[in-house]
Amino acid sequence: MPEGPSIVILREQAEGFVGRTITRASGNSKEVDYAALEGQPIVALRSWGKHFLIQLPDRVLRIHLLMFGSYRINERKEDAQPRLSLGFDDGEEFNFYTCSVKTLPADLDVQYDWSADVMSDQWDARAALKKLRAQPDMLVCDATLDQEIFSGAGNIFKNEVLFRIRVHPLSTVGALSAAKLRELVEQMRVYAFDFLRWKKAFVLKQHWLAHTKRICPRCDIPFHKAHLGKTQRRSFFCVKCQKQYPPALTPARSGSTRQSQRTPPAS
User: Fold this and answer.
1) Exposure of 210 by Cβ count < 10 A (0-12 exposed, 13-18 middle, 19+ buried)?
2) What is the DSSP annotation of 158-208?
3) Are residues 158 and 229 in contact, defined by beta-carbon separation less than 8 angstroms?
4) What is the residue extent of each domain of the chain?
């Protein structure tokens, strides 16, 4: 699933369509009135987390690329029908595939909390801390994926940031010290722009320290891999240098491909 920085790249690549008028609209989504789009100018292109937003005068098209979505600018995929295809008077076009397309009301500020987007100029670290402190029993592996707290963050963020700050994914938010919690919030933002820079340079995977890796680069021992938390997304972590808060009652099983979520203590 494309994470926030990838959607920022999409927004930047499509910037040339702003101010252009749609002359043709088609696709196989049942959520869109294609005829109503023709003749409408693109007022702005925005992004919130993993949502790409095409703002028109009277509505917004929200694109979510899901797990396998893709897009093409001025070209088409030969083996797939677009979910949304927008054409312009000079023959240029904007095509989206295998994604979710929804129509939203025009006032995006009512619908989105821009301060939650880790890539946004309106990002508010204090608001993120407040949301975290309000859920002390939440596992950090779930907190890092919570789009209401860290919009745009995904599984790569989770694995890389928790490795950076040396926190075990089964730690609870309430068990982290104030300093460690601030470090978590700070590094989620820092990693967002590291991701963006590396993605643009086509070297993102070369900078992964934990995600999909087998050996901890700090301890030179095997990483544990497990499906953790409510989301059951893959976690890669080192049981030596990533501390669990509070400590686990029993050690994690080495080499496990699926690990049940430890029940947090009652607050």
Assistant:
1) buried
2) HHHHHHHTTB-TT-BGGGS-HHHHHHHHHHHHHHHHHHHHHHHTT-TGGG-
3) no
4) 4-111, 114-237
Q: What does 24-38 look like in DSSP terms, one character per residue? A: EEE-S-TT--HHHHT
- Which helix H or strand E contains 96, and what residues bound it? strand 93-97
- pLDDT tens per residue, range 121-134: 999 999 999 999 99
Half-sphere exposure of residue 228: CA atoms within 13 angstroms, side-chain side: 29
Tokens 């897009």 found at: 71
Measure the CA–CA gap between 111 and 94, rounded to whole angstroms: 25
Sign of CA dihedral 139, 159, 166, 240: positive
Please name which of 102, 96, 100 lies closest in space to residue 77, comparing C-alpha atoms: 96
pLDDT tens digits for 105-117?
A: 999 999 999 999 9
Q: Which two tokens stand for residue 70?
A: 């893709």
Q: Would you say the CATH fold of 114-237 matches that of 4-111?
A: no
**CATH code of domain 4-111:** 3.20.190.10
Distance from C-alpha of 147 to C-alpha of 41, rounded to nearest angstrom: 30
Does a cis peptide bond (omega within 30 degrees of 0) precede residue 246?
yes
DSSP state of 254: T
Residues 51-105: pLDDT tens digits?
A: 999 999 999 999 999 988 999 999 999 889 999 999 999 899 999 999 999 999 9
- Short-list 99, 77, 88, CA closest to 29: 99
Domain 114-237 has what CATH class?
mainly alpha
Prediction pTM value = 0.87
